[in-house]
Design goal:
Order of helices and strands: HHHEEHEEEE
Helix content: 10-25%
Structural class: alpha+beta
Distance between the termini: 32 Å
Shape: globular
Number of domains: 2
Largest sheet: 6 strands, antiparallel, barrel
Strand content: 25-35%
Radius of gyration: 19 Å
């Protein structure tokens, strides 16, 4: 299906309406501006965190909170390097579209790692929480449950970066 001018205008209009209706769907703060999850300080901190930042912290506890409410304490169990079955190369748009053709520009690759946590007590839902550790400080982290009924409760956070 070709993208016509009419379809483009319709899609753009719907996107603007959706953003006005629910700005958090686009990782932006609402009109109140009280949500600091995606503040420039947090984005800068997350950009500096690497696999090497977390490796010495295996076995350490992280306090997990949401807003001003402390929820649980999670222990970092492992830091796992992400491996790709085939090297990702080509342009950024080719990577996103799934096109495996390569361009004449320098190859871009994906680099990443996963953090695995375990906890006890209240099971957390998939979502973004504030993690606090004595060495790293406070930072937002999106976690996914390890699976229903797992004991102890396990969670995974994945970091993925496009590297030139």
């Amino acid at each position: 299906m070709a993208l016509t001018r009419r379809r483009f205008v319709e899609a753009a209009s719907l996107t603007l309406l959706a953003n006005a209706a629910h700005p958090l769907a686009f990782a932006q703060t609402g009109l109140s501006g009280n949500d600091a999850t995606f503040s420039s300080q947090n984005v800068d901190l997350l950009a500096r965190l690497s696999e090497e930042s977390f490796k010495p912290l295996v076995g350490e506890s992280f306090v997990v909170s949401q807003g001003a409410k402390r929820l649980v304490s999670l222990t970092l169990v492992s830091v796992v390097t992400a491996t790709s079955p085939t090297p990702a190369s080509g342009t950024r748009s080719a990577l996103l579209s799934g096109n495996k053709t390569t361009s004449k520009s320098p190859a871009e690759t994906l680099s990443g790692f996963s953090l695995h946590f375990k906890g006890s007590g209240k099971m957390l839902e998939q979502g973004t929480y504030t993690f606090k550790n004595g060495q790293l400080g406070k930072f937002p982290l999106f976690i996914v449950q390890g699976g229903p009924g797992m004991n102890p409760n396990t969670y995974t956070a994945t970091f993925c970066q496009l590297v030139s």
